[in-house]
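Form 7-S
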Amino acid sequence: MKFLLEKGGDIKVLLIFKDTERLEEENDLFAYVKEKELFKGNVSEIYSSISHTGDNIILLGLGDKEKLSFNTIRKSFFKLGKELMKYKVESIGLTVPKFDGLCYKRTNAALAEGLLQSEYSFEKFLSEKKNKPTLKEVYLEVLADKKEKVEAGINEITSLIEGVFLARDLVNEPAINMYPETLAKAARDNLEDLSVNIQVFGKEKIKELGMEAFLAVSQGSNKEPQFIVMSYNGDSDSKDKIALVGKGLTYDSGGYCLKPADSMVTMHSDMAGSASVIGALKAIASLKLKKNVVGIIAACENMISGGAYKTGDIISSMSGKSIEVANTDAEGRLTLADALYYAKTVEKADRIVDIATLTGACVVALGNINTGAITNNEELMKDVKEAADLAGEYVWELPNNEEYRELNKSHFADIKNTGGRGAGAITAGLFLSEFVDDTPWVHLDIAGTSYLANELGYLPKGATGVPVKTLYYLVKES
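Output:
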């Protein structure tokens, strides 16, 4: 799909608000559909007047003018993209006005994103493809003095959506194909040509580093664990470095605390945190951000065998802290404990953000709308929230009162790996905080937002790619 900042297109798209009374062009059509109540201008509402005569018009609703947002624009143009596929449209044209209170550059980027999002589908294993994008050219008449900024914004969102789609593809891949070694290969294949240095440590090096918590989770599987370090150094004049640490459970059976069968069906998605890091790094490196970023993934499977770890086990960790295993299905926090400590001590990151499909408790609390967050640093949390706002992704900070930490205490070890059913998303996040000490840190629990049972707006069924955009804007803007 090409975006051309000029007049053109086979189909003319007109943007309509609910309170629009008349149009400067094509008012006869608008008056007709309004009189017949065929079109009201609601968000994402579409009326198509397409015929063989070539007089082709689409009315696209944007809802209430006072409530217009970038997400409204994304959703409406996503719906438009799907409509255009039905008619096999190859080119469209529209005039993009300046909306009160909205940045013009971001307005154009949002509409471009909506159209781009409409083209995604994961149909690798289907004999007959259902999603068949046809749109090749989008002609945008934009304000003359804003062309350069608009072009930059569209180029940026195009690269960013490529990162989102990569993350989706990695998460949607079934576990028979996506395991630690193939996840490491995917990182190499997608990032090495973008000047991202990739290091992959196997089992022996992981042992040498003392990552006993990570190894304990992996030992029930015959797939060798992989510790993946992806370094992008975009600013040689700065020593500042942010670490993005993604949970990399390529399959989670729950171990001896076995999940119910229905709950295991989608557990190939338990590596969505790692996929979001790879997707974000792809966008960061493609757009050559002047920032220093390290992506870290402890990749393994949580399986059952004679060698698998068990409840009641007491294991060590890279930090030296001992951990009582109260539940083998609370495994992600064990792998992240070592990955976070590595980010702090070996990479010496100034700020750390971990991204994990960590708890069902977060899904119960926030559903699939908001990503849950825990932090030890309100300034970094503020940066994350601002990045999420730019991305159109929702983040909700959870409380972290000191009393919650009491729930993670163990009689026999320094800490246990679950605080019980109550406040499960909070105690899981606070468990992770024990391995970053005072380094500014934010934990993002994407258990509910990274994978959907049904599509939600422009987010598809299956992998969503959340929070790739948030991570990108966090690195760029902070």
